[in-house]
Every structure is written in C-alpha cells, then in structure tokens.
C-alpha cells in the first residue's frame, strides 16, 4: 500500500489475534509501517445524514481512519480533508476523539434533541484494534444504555463481544442491533482485502455469540466485487444464517475519489490476470464509469449485472431463511436526556487528559486539536497477504 496523492494535496502495532487464522502466523509476517494515534477534541460528535439511500439519519465516529486497512473502504477520501493520504495514511495516521463520550453527552442533553437511532459508525470501524486501548466505543454504548438511546452497530471485528455486558441490556430494551460485515469466507482473500480485520471464521463466531446472548445480529455482505467475491454470495449468507444472523443486506463496490486509485493499484498487484475483467464489469454496473455517486443507484448499480446480483441475493436470502421478519425500528420512547455534567464512567473512559475530534459523514466540522497532539506509536505485523503496492 502506498500513499496515493489526493485532491487537497499542496506540495509498533500490537498484533490482533482475531485477524489471523493461526497464532503462529505472527512470526511469519513482515513488519507493518508505524501507526500513530493522535488525540483531538470534538466540538460536536453526531454526523447527520440526508442521503436517501442510507438507512440511518445520524451516526457517530469515535475514530478517524481505520486500522483494518480494507482496500475498498469508501471512507478513505475523508482523510484527504485533513491533508493526509487516503492510502496508507488512512490506515496508519489515526485520530482518537478522546472526549467522544462527553461531546455526545452534551449533544444529547441539548433542549429539543429528538432521539433517532445512532449508527456506530459510518466512516470508521468503531471496534478496530485501537479500541482495545481507547475504549471510546464502549463508553458510547454505556451512554446509550444510561439514556435509553437506540444504537445500531456495524463492525468487522470480534472485539464487539467484549461489550456484551452493555449490548445484552440494550437488546432487552429494544435499543440495539449489531451487523457484522462479511464480504468473504475465504481466509486468504480476507487477508488480502481487509488485512487487519477479524478473520471470517471469527466474525461468524461473533454472530453466534451475539445471537445466543439475545442481541439482534445481522450480516452485511459489502461490498460485492465482480470476479473477486461475487461467487460467494450464497455461501456467505448461508454461513451467516447458520451462525445466528437474522438479517442481511448488501452493496456493490463503490470507488469514490481516491478509492479508485487505491483499489486499482491493489487489483493489478494481486489479481493481474483478471484486473481488466473486474474493471470492465464495474463499468457495466456504473453505466460505463468506474463510480456513480447518484443517490438510488450508487449502492446497487444499474443494468443487467446489477439485476443479476440483486436476484441472486434475494434468492439466497430466502433459501438461508434471512429477513423473514421486519425487526422494526428500535425504541426511541425510552430516551431520557442525560445530565449536562460529565460523569466518570467505569465502562471504560478514555485516558485522562486526552481530547478528540469528529469528521462528518463526508465533511469536516470545526475541530479543536489538543495540544500537543497525543501520538501513540505502536507496531503490529501485517496479516499474511496484505497489500504491498509500489
């Protein structure tokens, strides 16, 4: 992975065992680039969405950038707003919004606030490896439980299991649902596509843990990439249903802004034999373009190939017994505005003295950077097969 140029340019990790199939693989992996976690202070945390093709109205992102390193991530361009590259910087120059819980508490306590389900998260993964240390997502869930506020979680990391003590009581009050993103069951493919996310088998086990605990769980088959993982639609949905998922949805690959360059570099490096076929089929889905940002078509594509994917998904969902009933909206009637005063939390507050910032869905709000920025360099080996591009 390189740092691709971006449209605003002017001039040791800790190993995550859930990302690997075998613990001994840690000794076989090349060293990863140094990752730094900077602390910023958020003036506001809630991002509001007016896109008609997204199933949520507001989201919170406790981090910016994502250590999972998914090559296809549509959120990569958000790093360009900061002057960072959507390439390697997106994975290695991370931001922890260390006052996230306090900032969210302040917003929820404002007069006139109307509760609507909050998505955790829309432009990062709230349970990426650095959450083990910072515990911002855990603090947010604790605040959701305290205030009776509904929350929808989407992640590809088994770390979400850590917070069962919060998720279970939220589920008992119809305040939470959790989706595991699972685009492939193939371990080698997963290590190439999303090198530091939990392994596919581990995500399936998380679905089972959640379902057995009574937490509504679903699967996100996203993205579907022609000639890369589109042959696995049926297998993924069947495995997810067997693991306890009750709901499923999908999207096709999106290549906004610099994601196109990052993805094409990766594609030619790892699948040179089929790269042109993949790109041509993407163009078939996008009316001759590599990306189509229009509402209503950007998530599913258009044309015969988009229709075939939709039909296969619908049939596989029926055969797997998914989406049999509408879970309905989460309960907003139990919301009680929190006290304005910041309360210390045993649920896992951020480190004392740290501060934080928040990126809107695809825009930048006012940020107050803590001074000096708290960098937390650490190293983690790449998962085997991780993209190395030049």
From TrEMBL:
Xref: CDD domains: Radical_SAM
Keyword Metal-binding: yes
Ranges annotated as spanning the membrane: none
InterPro entries in the cross-refs: Elp3/MiaA/NifB-like_rSAM (IPR006638), MJ0683-like (IPR040086), rSAM (IPR007197), rSAM_sf (IPR058240)
Keyword Ribosomal protein among record annotations: no
Pfam family, one: Radical_SAM
Record domain Elp3/MiaA/NifB-like radical SAM core: where: 56-281
Molecular function terms from GO: catalytic activity; iron-sulfur cluster binding; metal ion binding
Keywords attached to this entry: Iron, Iron-sulfur, Metal-binding
Region spans: Disordered: 370-390
Protein name listed in UniProt: Radical SAM domain protein
UniProt source species: plant metagenome
């Amino acid at each position: 992975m390189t740092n691709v140029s971006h449209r605003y340019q002017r001039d040791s990790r800790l190993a995550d065992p859930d990302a690997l199939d075998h613990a001994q693989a840690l000794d076989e992996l090349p060293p990863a680039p140094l990752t730094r976690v900077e602390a910023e202070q958020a003036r506001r945390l809630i991002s509001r969405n007016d896109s008609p093709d997204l199933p949520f109205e507001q989201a919170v992102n406790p981090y910016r950038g994502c250590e999972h390193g998914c090559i296809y991530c549509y959120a990569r361009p958000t790093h360009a707003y900061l002057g960072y590259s959507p390439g390697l910087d997106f994975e290695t120059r991370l931001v922890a919004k260390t006052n996230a819980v306090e900032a969210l508490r302040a917003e929820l306590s404002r007069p006139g606030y109307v509760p609507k389900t909050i998505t955790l998260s829309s432009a990062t993964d709230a349970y990426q490896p650095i959450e083990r240390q910072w515990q911002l997502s855990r603090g947010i869930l604790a605040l959701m439980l305290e205030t009776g506020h509904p929350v929808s979680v989407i992640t590809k990391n088994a770390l979400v299991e850590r917070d069962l003590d919060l998720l279970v009581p939220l589920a008992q009050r119809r305040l939470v649902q959790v989706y595991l993103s699972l685009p492939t069951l193939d371990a080698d493919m997963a290590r190439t596509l999303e090198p530091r996310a939990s392994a596919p088998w581990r995500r399936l086990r998380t679905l089972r843990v959640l379902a057995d605990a009574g937490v509504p769980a679903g699967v996100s088959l996203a993205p579907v990439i022609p000639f890369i993982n589109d042959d696995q639609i049926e297998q993924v949905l069947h495995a997810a249903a067997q693991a306890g998922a009750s709901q499923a949805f999908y999207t096709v690959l999106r290549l906004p802004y610099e994601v196109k360059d990052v993805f094409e570099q990766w594609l030619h490096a790892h699948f040179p034999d089929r790269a042109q076929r993949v790109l041509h089929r993407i163009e078939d889905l996008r009316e001759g373009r590599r990306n189509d940002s229009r509402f209503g078509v950007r998530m599913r594509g258009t044309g015969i190939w988009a229709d075939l994917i939709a039909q296969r998904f619908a049939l596989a969902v029926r055969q797997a017994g998914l989406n049999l009933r509408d879970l309905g909206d989460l309960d907003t009637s139990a919301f009680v505005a929190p006290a304005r005063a910041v309360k210390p939390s045993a649920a896992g507050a951020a480190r004392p003295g740290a501060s934080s910032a928040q990126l809107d869905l695809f825009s930048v709000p006012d940020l107050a950077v803590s001074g000096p920025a708290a960098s937390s360099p650490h190293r983690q080996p790449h998962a085997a097969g991780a993209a190395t591009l030049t």
